[in-house]
Amino acid sequence: MANQAPLAFVDLKAQYRLHKDAIDTAIDRVLEHGQFIMGPEVLELEAALAELAGVQHVISCGSGTDALLIALMAAGVGKGDAVFLPAFTFTATAEVVLTAGAVPVFVDVDPETFNMDSQDLEHRIEALPKNLKPCVVIAVDLFGLPADYEALNAVAARHDLMVLADAAQSVGATLFDRPVGSLAPVTATSFFPAKPLGCYGDGGALMTDDAGLAEIMRSIRAHGKGTGKYDIVRAGLNSRLDTVQAAVLLAKLSAFKDEVTARQRVAARYDERLRELVTIPARSNGAQSAWAQYTIQTDGRDALAAELKACGIPTAVYYPLPMHLQPAYQAFGDGAGTVPVSESLCGRVLSLPMHPYLDDATIDRICDSIESVLQGGDTSKSVA
Ligand SMILES: Cc1ncc(COP(=O)(O)O)c(C=O)c1O
To answer: Measuring CA to CA, which residue among 52, 53, 42, 84 is closest to residue 221?
Structure first.
């Protein structure tokens, strides 16, 4: 096993090789026309994404983090406001709350779907100190699986909160056949290269059916401008999506649906091989994941990761520490033991290589190695 070639965790080179002509042509076209900021590809991409997500308005921007921040700014979130978010998420979900000047309130997640637990959300809204105003709930579609929007939207409606979907990992997923983007009043996503739909740098987008909100978000991404270029009507950001990145995304978009289907094939084969060995990722009612990650749960996670690494199989721990225990956020939580499911998951989760170009033999090599390690065998014998 030791002399087998190391694998890629996300194989962007395989994707580029397959779509090289379309991607190179799209980039060349931008170099030729020279409209590097807000060139025609940006509007074209926004229209294509609106169709994919089934929404009226798509506002592209500089990153997934900026997309979340722009949504909070547009909603007028600031001092004295509480924003509810899962403790088990990437740091960007929490970071934007502090950047907006609001207070993050960490909510626990479901132990199987990894997504926000709507009962815990209700509990934490009711337990909020009187000096804070409940304002927004950020639902994260972790690892590509849509959150339980029916339950979360209902809790939010009861308490007059705006739901902001953090779909950084889930573009391409559906819930009861409705695409991500149309499941919450506002959705933010990321085009970070390793995401299911990734560009070749930073990028992000917002999706909504609310024309008023869309206009404000469009203004915020471009310095808070009004109708004229130097007509500034609010504080904003410099957060436009580069035309080159829009061109790359447009070129990749034609293969995107097939890539999501390929990710589902990879997940199904992992399921079949691993279900008796570890806890495989749960499906949730009516949801079709975009499979940004395939994340198992197991005891002895760190030892397994180390043994796989020695066999040339990369893995990742998303995430090693819940947000309320991170040094920058400890002041906003009540410490260890207070968000128990998130804390337990951080010690047990392990994400395996996942991308649309993983073939069956490679998946089998990964699963053979996991089987050997967990059954105390010799990994040198687990050859594909
Ligand atoms: C759940 C989640 N939210 C937000 C982001 C931020 O996206 P970006 O890296 O494009 O700023 C990410 C990206 O890793 C993410 O996984």
So the answer is: 42
Question: In which domain, by residue range, is 153 found?
Answer: 13-250
Q: How far is the CA of 181 from the centre of ligand 1 (A)?
A: 15
276 Cα: distance to centroid of ligand 1 (angstroms): 32
Query: Rounded distance, CA 39 to CA 54, Å?
Result: 23
Residue 4 has pLDDT above 90, yes or no: no
CA 272 to each of CA 9, 223, 364, 365, 370: distance values in angstroms, whole numbers, following the listed order: 20, 50, 10, 14, 13
Distance from the alpha carbon of residue 64 to the mean position of ligand 1, in angstroms: 5
Q: Can you state the angle between helices 360-374 and 243-274, rounded to 10 degrees?
A: 50
Q: What percent of the chain lies above the pLDDT cut of 90?
A: 95
Query: d(Cα 239, Cα 191) in Å, to the nearest integer?
Result: 13
| 277 Cα–ligand 1 center, Å | 30
Q: Identify which of 169, 191, 200, 354 to mutate to test ligand 1's pocket (most ligand atoms within 8 A of the CB).
A: 169
- Give 90 Cα–ligand 1 centroid separation in angstroms: 7
Q: Is the shortest distance between the CB of 89 and ligand 1 below 6 Å?
A: yes
Question: What gap in Å lies between CA 100 and CA 119, rounded to an integer?
Answer: 26
CB-CB contact of 65 with 206 (8 Å)? no
According to DSSP, residue 354 is labeled -
Interacting residues of 62 by C-beta distance below 8 A, sequence separation 6+:
202, 203, 204, 221, 237, 238, 239, 240, 241
92 CB near ligand 1 (under 6 Å): yes
CATH number of 65's domain: 3.40.640.10
Q: Is the CB of 245 under 6 A from ligand 1?
A: no
232-291 pLDDT, tens digit each: 999 999 999 999 999 999 999 999 999 999 999 999 999 999 999 999 999 888 999 999
Total tally of structural domains belonging to the chain: 2
SS (H, E, C) 73-85: HHCCCCCCEEEEE
d(CA 363, CA 361): 6
Nearest CA to ligand 1 atom 8: 64
CATH number of the structural domain spanning residue 374: 3.90.1150.10
The answer to whether residues 92 and 163 belong to one domain is yes
CA of 376 to the centre of ligand 1 (A): 37
